[in-house]
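Person: I have long wanted to understand how a fold can be written as tokens. Underneath my words sits a plain record pairing an amino acid chain with its backbone structure tokens. Those tokens are not coordinates but codes from a learned vocabulary of shapes. I should like you to check that the lines agree and flag anything odd. The protein I mean follows directly.
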Amino acid sequence: MRFVVVTGMSGGGKSTALRMLEDAGFYCVDNLPVLLIEKFVELIAAPGGEVTKVALGLDVRADQAFGEVQKILENLKANGYSFEILFMEANDKTLLKRYKETRRMHPLSLDGRIEEGIKKERGILSEIRNKSDYVIDTSNLLTRELKEELDRIFVQNEEYNSLMVTVLSFGFKYGIPADADLVFDVRFLPNPFYIDELKYKTGNDKEVQDYVMSFQEAHTFIDKLADMVEFLIPNYIKEGKYQLVIGIGCTGGKHRSVTLANQLYTRMKNRGSYGMKISHRDVGQGIS
């Protein structure tokens, strides 16, 4: 039997993950009181049972002793039960935004301050997060991308490391992305903006891609960048990093940066056990 414990920050996507696992054939139970976990596992894992895949959702509630979860999980492991822990994460800014949009109260913000509830919850969940098999940060994930990640782990059973790599194109005229870990400037390449037939197209159009990649400097740049990123990623994984944003910028974020971001993404997307996504921050900005 495959047994997955799904937990994480309130608002981090736990309920969504459980629904997706249920669609993938898992028998899902959410919000089970902590003191019933052991009995539930004993019953579900009894010989002759028909259930082969189980997902158990656990989250912080003001009225349940979440501090006992770690002890209970250790007892289960000592008694021969194997399980995986999936931790759903998001940054504070995203969690706060989600709570404000839904107008819900955080389960630990008894005084009404969501920020304090988030801070308290992070402290409570720090131990189980550190021991999780999978950590998925949903701060910048689309629902489709989350489903792809869960399918990769729990349906296709691919080897997984808790690192999501985002290749992000942007325009320097609109500012460097605040969440970028690595930033590369491709303004050294000729700018398609000054060619009339390319000016109103983007790096998602073949004509612009062909123009940008017609220069040997573009090929040399992407070769060296891909080599460096391939070297860095295993070391980031080893250090426990779970989010890497690679920013590639040009003047307006429409032509050169988009083309080279697409090139890097295409080269890297099937090369490792980490997640990959691409985003073009400023491709829709007006031309001025």
